[in-house]
Amino acid sequence: MTLKEKAKILDKDSIEKALKRMAHEIIENVKTMDDTALIGIKNRGSHIAEKLADKIKDIVGKRPPVGALDITLYRDDLTQVSEQPIVHSTEIAFDIEGKRIILVDDVLFTGRTIRCALDALIDFGRPKQIQLAVLVDRGHRELPIKADYVGKNVPTAIKELVEVRLKESDGKDEVVILEKAD
Amino acid sequence: MTNEKKMVWTKKDIIGLEYLSKEEIEHILYTASSFKEVTTRQIKKVPALRGKTVVNLFYEPSTRTRISFELAAKRLSADVINVAVEASSVRKGETLIDTGKNIEALKIDIIVVRHDCSGAPNILARSVKASVVNAGDGWHEHPTQALLDIFTLKSKLGRIQGLNVSIIGDIAHSRVARSNMWGLTKLGANVTVCAPKILIPEGIEKMGVKVTNDIDEAIRGADAINVLRMQLERDAAGVFPSKVDFFKQYGISEERLKKCKKDIVVMHPGPINRGVEMSSGVADGQNSVILEQVTNGIAVRMAVLYLAAHAKRQ
Q1: What's the whole-model pTM score?
Q2: Phi, psi for A101 (deg, rounded to 5)
Q3: Which pick of A141, A142, A178, B200 has the fewest CB atoms within 10 Å?
Q4: Residues of chain B found within 8 Å of residue A43, distances taken between Cβ atoms
Q5: What is the pLDDT of residues A71-126, one digit of tens each?
Q6: How far apart are CA B23 and CA B10, in angstroms?
Q7: Which domain holds residue A138?
Q8: How many domains, in total, are found in chain A?
């Protein structure tokens, strides 16, 4: 299957702006950052969580704790995927018990990743609240899941793919829509 | 980016390190490091093998390996059944293949097998569709033990490539030694084996290891030693007149350890014969990682069960 790049929906500047706006929304919404932590879903969600934490620090002067969650072992399609996903480590260096956790991912699509992440997260303790922040919401939900903070809503066709590229993993910051060529 | 790499795991069975490539061994070690994090959580359980069934089929008595496999399977949310030979129909004359076929008819997903005959897991793997994991066969291989030894060594010293590792003890009758030799040489370690002549199989140097009968030569300059259990009651009977004699000539004592590198890593697959292959001072000392090996064994076995169960079959 070959993929053809169809459109660039966010460039470096617009990603920056979206993250800054999301940071403001989070701060306004949670009132105090003292009991709030960010947890990114590996791999790109955790890069976005780090960026978001930097933006929050720029505004309130204090950086919230950031963790990284690997959800491979909680996936509901382990027996269906053709390539066996690599199991990475989860890195959460703080206690999530009683905290407000903002779960961060790059793209919200079917909602299944978030379902896995909720299961995985709750195995670490009982947060007082879990919210969801995503850079791109592309629609097509298969589960009743909704984001609290969205960088950009992008209506897509089901056969399209939204790819978030980040400096940390892909060399540059951009979001593109790809289309299956065949 | 290294952790973005994809690996298609195709081995339904884990029979020995002889049959795994360097990349496959490294992939197991990487996966095990992720599972190690799981074992440090409050809730030490993930749903990766939910709905799968693992049978521990043990034709030879074992406590620690069976418990380790059982815990590993349970922490992956699999269901586990233990079959011990004494209590099974094997005593009524059923063959290994028939036992395998019957287990398969019960819709078991993974068979963990220990057998006193070398090669038994190979035969079983060929005759069933279920995954077969070798938990030790005769004098052949004990892959998960070697993987946990290598995992422990790597987490202590940061690498395997270029390390000087000496395996000391009954090389001839040790499946732990054989699996370690395969794994360590594939990952680029310099391996020395040391034992009395009679406990060194002929032609062993063809595996790419150095052979010596001199314990002091084996430990000098070593980054790590893996001291094997002397089965004086069994395989090694008659080689040494007494345990005291063996300890004098080959045992790792505090005095001997003083001649080694200060930060040498001391491993032992257990159970230890204190005062035979090593002194209590060494077993409980600063350099010993023996209990870490036991802890790491669960993470390594979780990785092996997970990979085998989800192997992409050809």
Answers
A1: 0.88
A2: -110, 125
A3: A142
A4: 3-4
A5: 988 887 776 655 667 888 888 999 999 999 999 999 999 999 999 999 999 999 99
A6: 12
A7: 12-74+93-159
A8: 1
